[in-house]
């Protein structure tokens, strides 16, 4: 039987609901205020006296060799290597980045079976941290890493890296997964403004379609993008209490609330002309391409909008579009009473306990490491001591400010809380079931049945 993990705030449900509404409102306000501007990153943020360099003491590690594994590619991997280079400079250690494949738990299992585990791995799911602990792979954080974690992170971000109350993971990278990016020229030509509600979004999509541009780009080849669509709708429509229950499989996927969310999602997925390439094309489009095709082709791109997190900026950066002018963003519209705020992240976990591995994770828990990558763009840190001024444009600064302001009151990506067999494996579980739903969005009941069957198997007892 697979143990499951979840994250819940320690406040009352009523307070959590109210705080989520405040966080969503703050996010909406901040993005609206900045979506029409951009700058060079030389000002506009308030560092509040937060240190940005050499704030953490690191040991000399001359001669030490480390490996760190993550499922990161392209610019994200390249930028992270600059962070590792700074660690090498300060300590004398040598660090090798090991590209991993999804699901990373399976990748690590094969490395461990071969006697060659990396020293540290960046795990994208709380459920994966729990699995690594249950299998005896993960090592607890040492006192230096714990001290840095407690100094720089809210209690909520500390808690989701814990297993049975003991800290194992440092959330080096976060994501705001409740954003829709859009081609500003397409919106301007169609005469539409940023939608605030789901109904507004549908109306905006129709107007964009009437103007001659396909409304949405969907990276359906990566099943996690589809789980993010569902989660944002579900959180806003069903509310945080139901969201927590479904995340823990305390209610079944055959619940009426799931039917309602899938039916709502089908309002977009069932309109094949609303999706670039139709469902077949979307299922062959990986996430990076779903972003770049929205911002190439001038005022006639393949799509006018693409839904995904702040990290889409990395891919926008691969085009000629400029964030804040050519590429703008608005919060995922409210489906129910409140707009959703869904977060994700990647946690550094030690697999080979050593002085060098502990030092590397201590560094990753510091504002020093996160500030380096923040300046490079396409990255968001839950570290509250990273100065806003480190982020390279006003849009990113506002997203970061909203994340930190939300404190403990956010909901973590639901599929990332699930056992990886259900919520994090290509071609299986929720990823596959929602890909099938994109192909046939009229089959709501069948999709629910398949989701429940796969969830019950992955959680072990279906309860």
UniProtKB/TrEMBL annotation:
The keyword ATP-binding does not apply. Residues 37-57 are annotated as: Disordered. InterPro entries: Bact_solute-bd_prot1 (IPR050490), SBP (IPR006059). Residues 1-35 form the signal peptide. It holds the Pfam family SBP_bac_1. Keywords: Signal, Transport. Belongs to the bacterial solute-binding protein 1 family. This is Extracellular solute-binding protein.
